[in-house]
């Protein structure tokens, strides 16, 4: 479908694509596959470098603020480098957006912690470049939990279903109201774009079409079930 398209040509105006979704949605896997297809610069969130993450999943009340601030500053440091540009790539694909940090903050921080967090964010967020297109991978709690258990990351073994449910609701609320960039909400609960080439190509075709409205929905699972 898009194998013969020159994505570095002037006709392809989406230069910076960000993939988002709840833990287990497949955002990193999609970002890697899409970056390879576009020969794009790949930006992955360095969550493994957060020394508080494992402790957070064991005791969220105690370690929420430490974990949040570490992620905030790490994301800020990584994304501000985009301002410098890159001589070897014309396209960028990332597996997160800076703004999603607030979803976790409002879910996990106490009122006094949130007040301090907001003061820090208000100073640094204006320096972050906003993607041309955000892909929000929407899924069900059941599918998310299944994916999390399947990949068996040590620091995720203490994640419970209630937390994923709250996070899923938070993501839906956030992206249905986010208007700072164009958003494609893709329901991926019933497809496997990691292992199924047809599912991946269907998603890529939707992502890389010439024009996108401010907010759009894509539900490939419906067509798949119907045999279309």
Task: State the strand order across the main sheet.
Answer: 2-3-1-4-5-6
Please identify the top-level CATH class: Alpha Beta
Strands, total number = 6
Biggest beta-sheet profile: 6 strands, parallel
Total helix count? Answer: 9
Radius of gyration: 18 Å
Distance N terminus to C terminus? 17 Å
Kindly report the name of the CATH homologous superfamily.
P-loop containing nucleotide triphosphate hydrolases
Oligomer: single chain
The fraction of residues assigned to DSSP E strands is: 5-15%
If you average the pLDDT, what whole number results?
Answer: 89
CATH fold-level label: Rossmann fold
Structural class: alpha/beta
In short:
46% of the residues lie in helices and 12% in strands. By secondary structure, the protein is α/β, with parallel strands linked by helices. It has one domain (16-226): P-loop containing nucleotide triphosphate hydrolases (Rossmann fold, 3-Layer(aba) Sandwich), CATH 3.40.50.
What does this structure look like?
By secondary structure, the protein is of the alpha/beta class. The protein has a single domain, classed as P-loop containing nucleotide triphosphate hydrolases (Rossmann fold), CATH 3.40.50. The protein is about 45% helix and about 10% strand. It is built from nine helices and six strands, in the order βαβααβααβααβαβα. The protein has helices at about 25-40, 55-60, 60-80, 100-110, 110-125, 140-150, 160-175, 195-205, 220-225; strands spanning about 15-20, 40-45, 90-95, 135-140, 180-185, 215-220. α3 (about 60-80) runs antiparallel to α4 (about 100-110) and α6 (about 140-150) packs across α7. The longest helix is centred in the first third of the chain and has 21 residues, at about 60-80. It starts with 15 loop residues before the first strand and ends with a helix. The relative contact order is 0.18. Residues about 1-10 have low confidence and may be disordered.
